[in-house]
Write a structure and sequence with these properties.
The chain is an alpha/beta fold. The chain folds into three domains: 20-124 and 304-310, Nucleotidyltransferase, domain 5; 141-299, Exopolyphosphatase. Domain 2 (Nucleotidyltransferase, domain 5); 319-502, Orthogonal Bundle (Hypothetical protein af1432), CATH 1.10.3210. 45% of the residues lie in helices and 16% in strands. The protein contains 22 helices and 14 strands. It has helices spanning 59-62, 69-86, 98-102, 106-117, 126-138, 176-182, 187-199, 217-229, 244-255, 270-273, 276-290, 302-309, 313-316, 320-332, 339-346, 355-366, 379-388, 397-410, 421-424, 429-449, 477-480, 483-495, and strands spanning 20-26, 31-37, 45-51, 89-96, 121-123, 146-151, 156-162, 165-172, 211-215, 241-242, 294-297, 459-464, 467-472, 499-502. A six-stranded mixed sheet has the order 8-7-6-9-11-10, with helices on both faces. A five-stranded mixed sheet has the order 3-2-1-4-5, sandwiched between helices.
């Protein structure tokens, strides 16, 4: 089989900041390629494909990689390397985890991949795998405090986090495939195995009352089940959280279920059904051992950690939300009106805001022109849906609701309808007032400027007494003020309990 040597992506060096990064993850259950479009701080994957190879199937008994999965995995990696080259990837990382690390024929498998693709394979140690999973979480939640557990097919990786700093770590043979085999496909026996493994780790008790962050595909499937069961209005896994007293009964039910019961659950792949009970047992056991104050799911893990470590240090230090929103603004905006221009213009309305509120307002400004190319009749709802579910790390669900509703109002939507009412229930009165003021201010700003840069600087907002003034430079008065501007100024002022006036 041919190899990809000519013009192949580089390995083992940071990217220049202008290219694409790809990660080929050779796991115990699947082989996956994810291609990221750098240099954004946490870019949205451009391409994501997996092949279910089950390399770890039977490993616990035979000590070897699944002989039926090896040829499929080799072909998948070879294909993924070729795709990466065709997609213009500048840096490619091929990493292998628990199955390849633990199998006696793992080294031979690695040699064959390197021979076919002319690329180095990085076999992660348990410590490296655990810390890369933690780095993926920290990329969006830099001050995470508690413990992250990343469940794969072959192992469960644990890292204790002290306000963003790495603490104790452990890798356990409790991946959902391996746990199923160790228990001879008996969920009841799996409970005993899990309890015994966790009882050996003294530092788990230090997590009591803090947050347990759950990562990995099987645990994300469990999060989908939770979302359906509690009728949570936002179907986004990242940063979805649930109280332990709500999660525990559901986990114990799932841990005693058979795969046939999961077939009716939308979004759970058939292959995932076969081991989902064991994933539930592992999560329930970890909760029993740590007694967290909150269970929170992460949409980001080891692959994102690998990607982040490949970026220049200057990019790694950027705010992930603002960096992602800036990238979106640059690529989808019409006339390059800047978020800072909008932010500064409406700042007289937010004199008492704290820094987290200002950060969220800047994100809203950066995304406020996201729906310009949608059909006018559907612009508000399309923009709302897009912003609500944008795959950025670290956004709490209340913050997603805030940004989505702000955008909905900016595009003339009226929150409280059938589309937005479920999401509005996530917010309190103060947050809803902030949403209305921000959305109406953005609606006014885009009406004045036509979303073009430089125009807002000829106008200013000022609150004095019971009035909201829109001050317009004298020579530009007729160009800046229209009936629509006056009408939208009046609407914004009314929401603030003021009278609007153009000066």
């Amino acid at each position: 089989m041919a190899s990809f040597q000519a013009n192949s992506p580089s390995v083992n060096k940071p990217i220049s900041g202008h290219g694409r990064v790809a990660v080929v993850d050779i796991g115990s259950n699947s082989v996956r390629l994810v291609v990221y479009d750098a240099p954004a701080r946490l870019p949205i994957p451009m391409f994501n494909e997996k092949a279910a190879c089950e390399l770890g199937l039977g490993l616990d008994k035979s000590g070897r990689l699944n002989p039926l999965g090896v040829p499929k995995a080799l072909d998948s990696v070879w294909r993924f390397v070729g795709l990466s080259q065709a997609m213009g990837v500048e840096k490619l990382e091929i990493v292998a985890t628990a199955a390849v690390r633990d199998a006696v024929d793992g080294p031979d498998f690695v040699v064959e991949i390197e021979k076919r693709t002319s690329h180095k394979v990085r076999v992660l140690s348990g410590e490296e795998e655990a810390k890369m999973a933690a780095l993926g979480l920290l990329s969006g939640v830099p001050d995470a405090d508690g413990i992250i557990g990343d469940l794969g097919g072959g192992s469960l990786d644990l890292v204790c986090l002290d306000k963003g700093k790495f603490g104790n770590f452990e890798t356990l043979p409790l991946g959902h495939l391996r746990l199923m085999e160790r228990s001879n496909n008996n969920p009841e026996k799996a409970w005993d195995i899990v309890r015994e493994e966790f009882s050996r780790i003294d530092w788990l008790k230090d997590v009591k009352g803090r947050t347990l962050f759950a990562a990995g595909g099987s645990w994300r499937s469990i999060a989908r089940i939770f979302i359906e069961q509690i009728k949570h209005p936002l179907h986004v896994i990242d940063n979805f959280w649930i109280e332990p007293e709500t999660a525990n009964p559901l986990l114990h039910i799932l841990g005693g279920s058979t795969k046939h019961r999961f077939k009716k659950i939308v979004g759970i792949p058939e292959k995932r059904n076969e081991t989902l009970s064991y994933a539930a047992v592992a999560l329930a056991g970890l909760m029993d051992a740590t007694m967290p104050g909150r269970l929170k799911f992460s949409g980001f893990g080891m692959r994102e950690g690998i990607m982040i470590s490949s970026l220049p240090e200057s990019i790694q230090k950027q705010d992930p939300l603002i960096s992602a929103c800036t990238t979106m603004n640059e690529r989808t905006g019409r006339f390059s009106i800047t978020g800072l221009e909008l932010l500064d213009w409406m700042s007289p309305l937010f004199t008492d805001e704290i820094e987290p509120e200002k950060r969220l307002r800047l994100a809203a400004c950066l995304m406020s022109d996201i729906g310009w190319n949608e059909h006018p009749d559907y612009r508000a709802e399309q923009a709302f849906d897009r912003v609500l579910r944008v795959p950025y790390a670290g956004l709490r669900h209340t913050q997603r609701a805030v940004l989505g509703l702000v955008t909905y109002i900016r595009y003339n939507g009226e929150p409280g309808d059938e589309l937005t009412a479920p999401v509005m229930r996530l917010l309190d009165e103060g947050q809803l007032r902030w949403v209305w003021v921000t959305g109406l201010a953005l609606r006014l700003a885009h009406t004045i400027s036509g979303s073009a840069p430089g125009i807002l600087s000829g106008t200013r907002l000022r609150i004095e007494g019971a009035k909201l003034f829109l001050e317009v430079d004298g020579d530009d008065h007729h160009a800046m003020v229209s009936d629509a501007v006056k009408r939208r100024l009046k609407t914004l002022a009314k929401k603030l309990g003021l009278k609007g006036r153009v000066v």
